[in-house]
Amino acid sequence: MTYTKYSASGNDFIIFHTFIEKDYSLDAIKLCNRTEGIGADGLVVIIPSSQADFKWLFYNSDGSNAAMCGNATRAVSHYAFFNNLVSSNEMQFLTGAGLIKSFVENDIVETQLTAPKVINEEFIQGGFLWHLVDTGVPHLVTIVDDLELYNHDLCAKMRYEHNANVNFAKIENGIIKVRTYERGVEGETLACGTGMAACFLRANELGLVKNTTFVYPKSGEELTLSLRNGTIYFKGAVKKVFTTTI
Ligand SMILES: N[C@H](CCC[C@H](N)C(=O)O)C(=O)O
């Protein structure tokens, strides 16, 4: 089987396409293992679809299935275009969270995320003010003045209590810096797309950032989040790292 490794702002994925729709959770655990496998935060399986250009199955590195993954939507769009799985650089594909539209321009990919759903406007826990929103998958967001306040043990506790990813966001000079503890990776990743979207949305609704804002994850790579007619757009570079046949 041929697998392609992508990095989307440091959030990395293994991608392949197949006609066989089955449970690939054990493949995800094996392939994503950073010492005995290729190593990645997640596995994306592309499968034909009669309702869209294709559909995907997304697995975190622990083998858990997730409805959506913002960074993987950018990587998979690039993969589909450059592997001739689609006939245009504009495509739409089905995820567990719904239909995603994307636009590929060389190594820059913009995707339209699914409509956000606020789960809990705000609550205090562990000394922080939290907001819980689903931007394809559930995200806890707290806005802080110092990202060093990010705490692994608190994130792990919040992750399990709320079954959500956990984001610490700092706003400075109109941009957002984000650190994310990712559910299913069970640790901090270098970037989390739906997490950056959740932080952007929260900051925008509080009037702290404009409708188009640069967001910087742990990797320091620049992403652009935009809110246009109530829809979130997510744009940034992706990198095809290598292809291998195992
Ligand atoms: N770990 C997430 C899925 C991947 C989200 C993230 N990698 C992104 O880019 O949105 C979850 O299980 O909820």
TrEMBL record:
Where substrate is bound, by residue? N11, N60, G70, N71, N165, E182, R183, G193, T194
Query: Which reactions are catalysed by this chain?
Result: (2S,6S)-2,6-diaminopimelate = meso-2,6-diaminopimelate
GO biological process terms on file: lysine biosynthetic process via diaminopimelate
Q: What is its EC number?
A: 5.1.1.7
Q: Which GO molecular function, any one, fits this protein according to its record?
A: diaminopimelate epimerase activity
Q: Does the keyword Amino-acid biosynthesis apply?
A: yes
Give one Pfam family, short name only.
Answer: DAP_epimerase
Write the record's keywords in alphabetical order, separated by commas.
Amino-acid biosynthesis, Cytoplasm, Isomerase, Lysine biosynthesis
- Where is this protein localized, as stated in its record? Cytoplasm
Its UniProt pathway annotation is: Amino-acid biosynthesis; L-lysine biosynthesis via DAP pathway; DL-2,6-diaminopimelate from LL-2,6-diaminopimelate: step 1/1
Question: What Gene3D superfamilies would the database entry show?
Answer: Diaminopimelate Epimerase, Chain A, domain 1
* UniProt-annotated site: Could be important to modulate the pK values of the two catalytic cysteine residues, residues: H139, E182
SUPFAM superfamilies linked: Diaminopimelate epimerase-like
Q: Name one GO cellular component term.
A: cytosol
Where would you say this protein principally sits, based on its record? cytoplasm
Q: Which residues are the active-site ones?
A: C69, C192
- Record has 4Fe-4S as a keyword: no
HAMAP family, per the entry: DAP_epimerase
Q: Could you tell me what this protein does?
A: Catalyzes the stereoinversion of LL-2,6-diaminopimelate (L,L-DAP) to meso-diaminopimelate (meso-DAP), a precursor of L-lysine and an essential component of the bacterial peptidoglycan.
Against PANTHER family, the record matches this protein to:
DIAMINOPIMELATE EPIMERASE, DIAMINOPIMELATE EPIMERASE, CHLOROPLASTIC
Oligomer status and interactors:
Homodimer.
The UniProt similarity line reads: Belongs to the diaminopimelate epimerase family.
- The protein's name is Diaminopimelate epimerase
Its source organism is Arcobacter caeni
